[in-house]
């Protein structure tokens, strides 16, 4: 650790933003690269790293060395990335379960694969009858795997608009397929 490091550590501990800026300039690029390799999304990685620097600022009095700060930043970044990935996986799983509720899961059985393909085709056909924004949001979310933020950027709409369009499309499809007796048809296919 050089004299400049001690000086900036002292500034940070005293609550001077100059100290924080020094550590951000020193570690931001490496931490963002590290996070991006974990989450595969540059915008999310940048947000995670920025949040970690906020945590450094909030805990500034407890750091005794440059190594403490660096270790803290890497551990906090790693943990935040893991939390993000777990939350994303849980959300995708919930969305997938919601979409596939009542649908067969494809396996090696040819008949099951055929039913699955026909069901997906029917879903696409019914989506064409929904309002365009609902259908687009549903397709991007469930078939393309876009996140809410990606849909917002792609369509230029707010998070609330995405959630509303997705839930309305899902509800409409449930009513349509309930009215067409789809679970009954799938049961008949499985019997034969």
Descriptive report:
It is elongated, with a radius of gyration of 24 Å. The protein is built from 9 helices and no strands. With about 190 residues, it is an all-alpha fold. It has helices spanning about 5-15, 15-40, 40-60, 65-100, 110-125, 130-145, 150-155, 160-180, 180-190. The chain has 2 domains: about 5-90, Rna Polymerase Sigma Factor, Chain: A (Orthogonal Bundle), CATH 1.10.1740.10; about 100-190, Arc Repressor Mutant, subunit A (Orthogonal Bundle), CATH 1.10.10.10. One of its GO terms (molecular function) is sigma factor activity.
Number of distinct beta strands: 0
Question: For the CA atoms, what is the radius of gyration?
Answer: 24 Å
Q: Which strand-content bin applies to the residues?
A: under 5%
Poorly predicted segments: 184-192
Morphology call: elongated
User: Which fold name is given in CATH as the topology of the largest domain?
Assistant: Arc Repressor Mutant, subunit A
CATH homology-level superfamily of the largest domain = Winged helix-like DNA-binding domain superfamily/Winged helix DNA-binding domain
Mean pLDDT: 78
Terminal CA distance reads 75 Å
Number of domains: 2
| Fraction of helical residues | over 70%
The level-1 CATH class of the largest domain:
Mainly Alpha
So, CATH architecture of the largest domain?
Orthogonal Bundle
The SSE string, one letter per element, is HHHHHHHHH
């Amino acid at each position: 650790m050089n004299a400049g490091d001690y000086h900036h550590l002292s500034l940070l501990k005293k609550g001077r933003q100059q100290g924080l800026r020094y550590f951000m300039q020193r570690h931001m690029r490496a931490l963002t690269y590290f996070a991006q390799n974990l989450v595969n999304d540059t915008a999310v990685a940048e947000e995670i790293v920025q949040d970690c620097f906020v945590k450094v600022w909030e805990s500034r009095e407890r750091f005794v060395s440059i190594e403490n700060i660096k270790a803290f930043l890497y551990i906090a970044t790693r943990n935040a990335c893991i939390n993000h990935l777990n939350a994303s996986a849980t959300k995708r799983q919930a969305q997938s379960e919601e979409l596939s509720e009542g649908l067969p899961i494809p396996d090696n059985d040819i008949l099951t694969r055929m039913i699955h393909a026909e069901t997906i085709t029917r879903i696409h056909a019914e989506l064409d009858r929904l309002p365009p924004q609902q259908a687009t949001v549903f397709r991007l979310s469930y078939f393309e795997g876009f996140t809410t933020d990606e849909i917002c950027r792609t369509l230029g709409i707010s998070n609330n608009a995405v959630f509303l369009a997705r839930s309305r499309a899902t509800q409409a499809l449930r009513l349509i397929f309930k009215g067409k007796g789809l679970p009954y048809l799938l049961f008949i296919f499985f019997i034969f």
